[in-house]
Structure of Pyridoxal phosphate-dependent aminotransferase:
Amino acid sequence: LNRRLAEFGTTIFAEMSALAVRTGSINLGQGFPDTDGPEEVREAAVRALRDGRGNQYPPGPGVPELRTAVAAHQRRFYGLDVDPDTEVLVTAGATEAIAATLLALLEPGDEVIAFEPYYDSYAACIAMAGGRRVPLTLRAPDFRPDLDALRDAVTDRTRLLLLNSPHNPTGMVLSREELTAIAELAVERNLLVVTDEVYEHLVFDGEHVPLISLPGMRERTVRISSAGKSFSFTGWKVGWVTAAAPLLSAVRSAKQFLTYVSSGPFQYAVAEALALPDAYFTGFRDGLAAKRELLSAGLAEAGFEVYRPQGTYFVTTDVAALGEKDALAFCRSLPERCGVVAVPNSVFYDDEKAGRTQVRFAFCKRTGVLEEAVERLGRLT
Ligand code: PMP
Ligand code: GLN
């Protein structure tokens, strides 16, 4: 492994999911649902396969049906006006969108300010692009960003802000006021902003506001989302980027040489998913809101300190309340102790002290599975 990637090794999600399989534990670690998304969307994929749509290389920017559906979805939910031909790019999940965006926009040595705890691919992709990550630490209990610290973190080398709201792993959702302050700073300091909005439909308290909708941001924001989390098909790896044409074209240049294209038939199915009625989106969110309550209450009962998430399908806890000193060691021992797998937030921080005893649990699982997990966690010794 080269020097740029030496610190990354194996992602914690792979380690913890393998541990769950090996020990037969309930996997509340890696964030994927244990129930697939809507039947009609699955059928749409089958139809596309059978009808020979997408079985050969789709067009580089994505199939027109999906680009049109992405634009229509953004108009429906946020009143955004996006040109499907010049402002939408389909990617292999949000993961490729993040990689392509950073590879396209960063010069070696450029600084990228991002919230920590980071989603793990951010640090790796910044490194692959030769950039320098500059953390803005979100602190318990509410994980709100310190906007004065953000302002102070901007230097002459700052190229872009990499934002994630709803935020994985903490569940923090940026408010309109916070986003407005960030937008003002971006305009004042002439920064680009990349927004990872894969949990846009999973906000339980407050509302999801795309930064790109705020004054001055249309020309300087690269907005990323994906079908995995909104439609419970994380294996399909269909994501997308929307941005003003000059930015989008830069990202497309990089994307061409990463995967060129991907997920042909699934692109048609996701086009149909994006057009599902509002009731689908609210039903999906309300179902997860109930699971948030179930798991949060169970964890609190079991003695964890619980930081209530406003969005996403993760809940961050602190295990110091259980007398634990190290989240990674705790997560590695948890399967043996009670047959449950979780993810240590500590690996998502540069600041070792900040998240040392934080542990994340996913609640995108069937109710019975969560109940069983809660029971097991209650027996933790
Ligand atoms: N960003 C965040 C914050 C995530 O949690 C994830 C995982 N879904 C991704 C990006 C990657 O998304 P995808 O599976 O579409 O590549
Ligand atoms: N986004 C998911 C999570 O945070 C998993 C992503 C992955 O495995 N790379 O758990």
User: Anything to note?
Assistant: DSSP finds 13 helices and 13 strands in the chain.
